[in-house]
Structures are given as C-alpha cells and as structure tokens.
Write the structure tokens for this entry.
Amino acid sequence: MPQSRNPFYDGPVSDHFDGLRFHSSFEPRANNLLELAWMNAVKAARYWPAVTPPARFDLPPRRFGGLRIAMIGHASLLVQVCGVNLLIDPVYADRLGPVPGAGPLRAQPPGIRFDDLPPIDAILITHNHYDHMDIPAILRLARRWEPRIIAPLGNDVVIRRHDPGITVETHDWGERTVLSPRLSVHLEPAFHWSGRGMADRRMTLWCSFVVTSPGGGVLYHVGDTAYGDGSIFPRIRELFGRPDVAILPIGAYEPRWFMRAQHVNPAEAVQIMLDCGARRAFGHHWGTFQMTYEAQEAPPLDLARALEDRGMPRDSFQPLGPGMAVELPWR
C-alpha cells in the first residue's frame, strides 16, 4: 500500500522535497528488485582476500592546528582542523546491514582504534545508508564525548529511535552551522538517495559537506554521489571558491550499468575534482567492505589510470587506506 506520510520529516514542500520524499535535479533510478536479485545471484564479483590488518594504525594527536585527515576505513574519516575534531560517517561495525551477522563483512579493521580517537567535537553524517550511519558507534561516541551530531533533514528521527534522549541537529541543503569562531560547516547537494529498509527510500535527506574558515580555507567532502549531469560540482567553486582539499568517493562502482546512478567511478571522481577546482583530492569509500563487483585494489589502480589519461600527477589525487593520515596547511 503506498505511503502517504513521511515518519521522519514533515517540513514544507521545496524544490527537493515533495511532501513525502526527497529528490535532486538528477534522480538516481530506482533499482528493480529483479535486478537486485540478479546482481546478488550472479557470481561476477572479484575475489577479496580474508580480513587483513591495515599497514598501520594511526595515533592521532589530541588537537591539530592545521588540517589533518586520517582514514578510519571505507567512508569514515577523522578530520582535525583549526583545533576542532570532526568525525565523518563513523562506522566501526564488523558487518553492514539491518540483520545482525549478515551483510558485507569488514575486510580491514578500523585504521584508528576506537579507544585511540581524540575527543570528538562534532559528528557529520552524510546520509543514513548502513555504510555511512552506524547507530551503535554514534551512540557510543555520544556517551563518551557528547559531540554535536550534524546530519541532513530527517536523520534526527532515525537516530533518536535508538536513543530518544540524544541531540541531533539537522539542516537542509544550503544551510550553515558554526562549529567555532574559525570554522563553519555547510550542507550541499549530492546525487544520491537514502533508506535503511524497503519502505523508507528517500524519506530522509542526504548531503555533502563543505568546511570553511574566515581565512579562506575550504574542504569539500562528498560521501556518496553519482556524477549525473555534473551540475552540482562547479557550483561548489561558485559558492565557496576553489577547495583546498576535496575528499571524494572512488569505490563501489561495478557493474557500471547498475552503479552509475548511485556511485561515481574513479574517472568521474577526477572529473568532480576538476569541476569544483580542488587543489588536491583524496579518495575514500573503497577497500573495506565488499559491496560491489570490483576487486579490492581496483579503485586506486583505476584512479591512477584516470589521472594518467588526464595528464595529472598521481599525488594530486591520492587514495586513502585505513590508518593513513595526511597533514596540510589550513588558511
């Protein structure tokens, strides 16, 4: 029976909310259940090795005055900037999905052990898919540090269903929240979708984040996106200037006929870097959970080929593996 009410958000109709579901100017097509079944049944996926430890475990400093980006794994990152500690899409679960003991298994342990995290000031959630929103991890972080939790519209209800007392700030695309006198976070569009079950598709909003400072520093973070018509990426440069850094997804893209409307591939990620004018880019969303068909090491190899095809140096866009960290100046 068709739903007539959104249980997560009841705000006004807008150019990306029709009163029931959210949408964007480029709408990823709904995957047919038969296509999903076919994709799961056909064993075309490349073999991934058994669980292996990362090459290193990062031990982040308590605070960092410039910009430090450390990879936990998949889409989970610790961003330390201007003395503020941000966790983006923290996932510490061993498996992804609604059913305990089922779903994609973590192929590499987190590159930062939970107990090695510094005090967390804010958690940024791009959307509610299980590989980006780990409710037990969020609740554990909230109990330890009481960080601000910042997410797109409707996701406060998703999280509060597990802890009614938790505080979650939600914002719409184009809105800004101030983290400190030297740091703000802006929510901007992505070409993606949301949902944690069969009936809640696109009932909560998804987003990318832009972190800015009065001195002109700009960090652009994209959790998940398709390339679509490409229109949203030059807009970042128009609104904020050239990002000093873009953190872009490079994995979970095969088979292309199926994933094109959900996730960019490495060549499209390079195009996003060029579209937004980022001075440097780092790749995430690869190598930790086998969600699609490409081999574990395919994303960095395909990224290297895409950069070579464009005549761009490899160090202009580097893939981040678990435990890797980069330290950069910040304006």
Q: What stands out?
A: The first helix runs from residue 33 to 41. Helices lie at 33-41, 135-145, 155-160, 232-240, 256-259, 266-276, 298-310.
